[in-house]
Amino acid sequence: MLEFLRKYQKYFLFIVTTMVISSFVFFGTFSTFTKMETRKDQTIGKAIDGSDLKLLEIAALSKFLSSDRDDAAINGHRIPINLLNDGVIRKDLLATGVADILIRGNYPMFKKQLGAKLEKIKAYRSYEHPDAPFVSAKAVWQRFAPDINREWSFLQSEEAVNEETFSHLVNLYQLQSALPSEWLRRVLTLHEQQYNWLRPDPRLRQDDLSIFGFHSLSDWFGKDFVDLIAEFIHSAAIVAAENGYRVSLAEAKGDLRRNFEDSIQKLQAAKWPIELTFKGQLNLLGCDEGAAAEVWRKVLLFRRYFQDLGESAFLDRLPYTEFSALAQEKANVDLYRCPTIFKMSSPLDLYSFQTYLKAIAPMAKNDVHSFPSSTYSVIEVEKKTPELVGVEYRAQVLAVDKREAALKAPFKEVLAFEMGEEAWKLLKKEFSSLQGFSGKTADERFQALEKISPEERGKIDFFARRLLVNKHPEWVQELLDSSQGKDMQLILSNGKIELPHIEDPARLGSLFKEILSSPETSLTALHYFETEEAVFRFENIEKVSDSKVKTYEEAKKDGTLATMVDAALAEAFPKVRIKLAPEEAVKDLSEVKEKVAELLLVDLKKTLEKERGDDVDAPWCALRWKAFAAKAKEDLANHQNEGLWLKVEGENPLLAQFKMERVEKEISRSAEEDWMAKVPFMLVPNEWSAVHAETDGAVHFMFLKNRISSDEPILEQLSFGKGMIVADVHRVLAKELLDVMKQKQAIVIPLQQEQE
Fold first, then answer.
1. Hey, where are the domains in the chain?
2. Are 110 and 313 within 8 A, CB to CB?
3. Do 109 and 143 contact (CB within 8 A), yes or no?
4. Which is more confident, 52 or 468?
5. Nearest residue to 224 via CA among 66, 67, 39, 53
6. pTM, entire model
């Protein structure tokens, strides 16, 4: 008996397996049909045309759209697949930005669900081999699909859910197709097998490696999102029918069969094992062909309505041969930006800024984002930091570098000078290479110079020329008379005027102070002001102001701010040094300035990092201005307090320096800055962008006034331009349709409790 069973065990196993599968399929399908037959429909609201909005109708459409053919390749058998759906939500709504319009237009409804998704994402830990952390999902993504890590970083950095959260989720949902979970598993397995010493990790063979463990659309965005899409497509189909579009059930059935055949061919080409018939697919969906065709008929109406309007906009606006000029479309915007002088790309930049603020104005103790609304008086600032107070002059400044004048000396005269007894003593004192030569006579000095290397001889000759200049002031005078003057702003501060190549700024400052009391003496001295390096001439001197506090730009430009910061860092360095790494703690302050500044700003850094948002590549220092700009945008968008954020003529320059700059700007789609090339063309006219911080520390946001088409034909960009404008039309059309749905109260979210 046992021998008989052993001989025919394959056949017995086949019969038993067939019976089990058949019973599951039959009773599972039967129970589905039973539920369909006994289930009662109900009205949940009114559609966009005033007709009843039926629960089962929307539920059937929602269920049909909740999965598509691409789910098979991405998620395998983890979720039910629908090979009849060629990707309506994925291609027609997510990829075009229409879904983004729908969510933003109903954000309060979805904020809680998006918040729950964000919490799961923050708690998620991607796969990492327990014995070899370098064998990880993150490492594979970084190599083959780096955008996955970038988008994930965006979401992890968000302190709380916001409207941008959905956009990042969409990007990740689309990106998962670049590296499906099973492909990721294969790559990780191959990587693991490269190391003979590494024990195989059973989790790698068993765990779900899908991004965040999400599979279906409901996992990613919530069931309410799919229901909203179903209601939107239902409304679009009604509007399409009202506008004369027609799709028969027979046509819908034919399209469904074609979708199924295309899906099977694609899966087979990808060597994805699947054995499923058209009828079997309908059974999995729990419906018959007629019900599926009715659902698909609505999808086809929606598609034709949107695609026809998109295509007609493309064909009507420009001749086909000129259409590619759309790639050069420009956006007319008001760009609001922080002043260039306040770009903060390093901790030292921010520390300098905070040092300046503390010196000139009282600051709110509990608000690290605030900028001063008032400043200390000149007298108060001068008591604490006199170097920040100055009197402004303007003058035409001519300057001659003595090294340039030295080149006027003929070589014969230079050589004769070097062989002189007085010059020889100076040369021997300056150059050790001449110490071994006595040089008692001119001939001995000449022989000594001839034995020196060419490189050393060049240095000696140049030094001699510099000495000669002092004996020939006419050379300098000649160059000074022929040089071009430069109008300059000069600040007399703390008794000094700081300028390059002036070693004694106090002497220059005293001459300017004496202009009123001793004009003849001081002006004569300023007409020929000599230093070790150069000779200056100051003409047309004009006093512009009495004592005033320097602006940030003035303090930075004349070196005052750098001196203040160095002094503050030097004072704090002994206390901060113990917090530095051992290899840094032994260094001089000049080598670790940035690190010391960062340690002194550690509390501010923690606060700012919490508000990073999407700007993961921006330096944290720039977030100081981003927080300020966010407040400015909020008021400006509501037409409030414009004078608080933008410069007003005649106001205090100390307060005006912190105001945003508004610039009218035309931005093309081909702009070099990624943010500039992207954001204006995702906005609709009269819409504000989010605040953005750049990698160089710049902070800005914009208001889109309108978009302008270019007349320049660029035929090679035809398809790019067409896709862009069709997507634009779809988004505008979606917004208009959504507004009507809201007006007609045709949005019912969530559906009945039993559908949750």
1. 1-39, 40-312, 333-374+566-708, 378-402+479-546, 410-465
2. no
3. no
4. 52
5. 66
6. 0.48
Closest CA to 368 of 637, 541, 149, 621: 621
Q: How many CB atoms lie within 10 A of CB 222?
A: 20
Residue 647, helix vs strand vs coil: coil
Give the chain's length: 756
More confident residue, 326 or 541: 541
The Cα 246–Cα 115 span in angstroms is 41
Sign of the alpha-carbon torsion through 470, 475, 479, 481: positive
For 677, the token pair is 């090339």
On average, the pLDDT of the chain sits at 81
Nearest to 122 by CA among 88, 149, 159, 150: 159
Tens of pLDDT, residues 387-443: 899 999 999 999 888 777 777 777 777 777 777 777 777 777 778 788 777 777 888
My answer on whether omega of the bond before 362 falls inside 30° of 0, hence cis, is no
What is the spatial distance between Cα 166 and Cα 155, in angstroms, rounded to a whole number?
10
Question: Does the pLDDT of residue 722 top 60, yes or no?
Answer: no
> Which among 365, 360, 345 is positioned nearest to 658, based on CA atoms?
360
Cβ atoms of 502 and 515 within 8 Å: the answer is no
Banded pLDDT at 537 (limits 50, 70, 90): very high
CA atoms within 13 A on the CB side of 269: 6
Alpha carbon distances (Å) from 246 to 77, 252, 310, 647: 36, 11, 18, 58
Asked if residue 448 lies in contact with residue 455, where contact means CB atoms within 8 angstroms, the answer is no
Q: Looking at residue 305, what DSSP letter applies?
A: H
402 φ/ψ angles, rounded to the nearest 5 degrees = -60, -30
Tokens coding 164: 């941008």
Residues 345/667, Cβ–Cβ less than 8 Å: no
Q: Helices (DSSP H) in 217-288: which residue ranges?
A: 217-221, 223-242, 249-269, 278-285
Going by the DSSP 8-state scheme, the letter that residue 407 receives in this structure is T
pLDDT given for residue 27 in this prediction: 40
C-beta separation of 702 from 679 below 8 A: yes
Q: Which residues does residue 702 pair with via DSSP β-bridges, in sequence order? A: 335
Using alpha carbons, list the distances in angstroms from residue 201 to 132, 136, 188, 192, 628: 10, 12, 10, 9, 49
Beta strands at 330-337 and 661-668: parallel, antiparallel or unpaired: antiparallel
